[in-house]
């Protein structure tokens, strides 16, 4: 049972462009929505997170937008850089168990 | 401050064998969670241990088991290995149980079953 659906599976963006990744969730008990970034050979690392009482959170070039009524949240990577090339996962925790989206492989072309 | 340490980094086993993976959490962290990562299924929760007790378990067969020691180090065991068990096994540590305490992943153990 997939409780967090992520799209697209992959995307290619030019340097300086905007990367947008979307996630939809089903379980309204989720109360915290983190995004993780994973480089090859490494474990996922927390990138940015949002609580459902906030509609947007920005940290540097990374912004989360949250739509509680639609049960959707998205990650925007502004001014994408080649170093941003990685796999991104949205997630939602229930207790200490994280339910992850399927992941989006982002390739930023120079 | 040292991160989460997983050993070994790579492992090749034969079908039918068993394997034990180790995870040393960040100093002071008492919770260790394990995840399986595969291209097809993504990241799947295996189980969580806190203060030597299993607090939560994912939907995996009984061949997958774990334990936690008094120093919070954790081991994960897979018995009677199958080809489909080939995956990256990740552990994550946190200070307490409950996501609000923070969650740090190790670099994983890459298990290949042949």
Put the structure in a nutshell.
Chain A has 110 residues and is mainly beta. Helix content of chain A is 0%, strand content 57%. Chain A starts with a strand and ends with a strand.
Describe the structure.
The complex is a heterodimer of chains A (about 110) and B (about 110). By secondary structure, chain A is mostly beta strands. Chain A is about 0% helix and about 55% strand. Chain A is built from no helices and eleven strands. Chain A has strands at about 5, 10-15, 20-25, 35-40, 45-50, 55-60, 60-65, 70-75, 85-95, 95-100, 105-110. In chain A, the strands form two sheets. In chain A, strands 2, 4, 5, 9, 10 and 11 form a six-stranded mixed sheet that branches. A five-stranded antiparallel sheet of chain A has the order 1-3-8-7-6, with no helix packed on it. In chain A, a hairpin with a 4-residue loop joins strand 7 and strand 8. By secondary structure, chain B is an all-beta fold. Chain B is built from no helices and eleven strands. Chain B has strands at about 5, 10-15, 20-25, 30-40, 40-50, 55, 65-70, 75-80, 85-95, 105, 110-114. In chain B, strands 2, 4, 5, 6, 9, 10 and 11 form a seven-stranded mixed sheet that branches. A four-stranded antiparallel sheet of chain B has the order 1-3-8-7, with no helix packed on it. In chain B, a hairpin with a 2-residue loop joins strand 5 (about 40-50) and strand 6 (about 55). The mean pLDDT of chain B is about 95.
Largest sheet of chain A at a glance? 6 strands, mixed
Instruction: Give the fraction of residues assigned to helices of chain A.
Output: under 10%
- Spans of chain A of at least 5 consecutive residues whose pLDDT stays below 50 are none
In the predicted model, the low-confidence regions of chain B spanning at least 5 consecutive residues are none
Alpha plus pi helix count of chain A: 0
Say how many strands of chain A there are: 11
- Global geometry of chain B: globular
Silhouette of chain A: globular
Largest interface: A-B, 20 and 26 residues
* Overall SS class of chain A: mainly beta
Query: Can you write the helix and strand succession of chain B as a string?
Result: EEEEEEEEEEE
**What is the gyration radius of chain B calculated from CA atoms?**
13 Å
Helical amount among residues of chain B, as a percent range? under 10%
Radius of gyration of chain A: 13 Å
Strand content of chain B: over 45%
Distance between the termini of chain A: 38 Å
- Describe the biggest sheet of chain B? 7 strands, mixed
Query: In terms of quaternary structure, what is this?
Result: heterodimer
* Mean pLDDT level of chain A: 90
Summed up, the helix count of chain B is: 0
């Amino acid at each position: 049972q997939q409780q967090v659906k992520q799209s697209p599976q992959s995307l290619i963006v030019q340097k300086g462009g905007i990367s947008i990744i979307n996630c939809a969730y089903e379980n309204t008990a989720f109360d915290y929505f983190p995004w993780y970034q994973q480089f090859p050979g490494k474990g996922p690392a927390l990138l940015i997170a949002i609580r459902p009482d906030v509609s947007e959170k920005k940290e540097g070039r990374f912004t989360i937008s949250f739509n509680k009524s639609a049960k959707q949240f998205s990650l925007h990577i502004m001014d994408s850089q080649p170093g941003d090339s990685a796999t991104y996962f949205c997630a939602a925790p229930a207790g200490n168990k994280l339910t992850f989206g399927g992941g989006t492989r982002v390739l930023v072309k120079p | 401050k040292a991160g989460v340490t997983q050993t070994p980094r790579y492992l090749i086993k034969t079908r039918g064998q068993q394997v034990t993976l180790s995870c040393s959490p960040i100093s002071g962290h008492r919770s260790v969670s394990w995840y399986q990562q595969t291209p097809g299924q993504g990241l799947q929760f295996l189980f969580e241990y806190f203060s030597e007790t299993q607090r939560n378990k994912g939907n995996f067969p009984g061949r997958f088991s774990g334990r936690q020691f008094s120093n919070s180090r954790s081991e994960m065991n897979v018995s009677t290995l199958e080809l489909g068990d080939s995956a990256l096994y990740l552990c994550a540590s946190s200070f307490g149980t409950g996501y609000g305490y923070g969650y740090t992943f190790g670099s994983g153990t890459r298990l290949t079953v042949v």
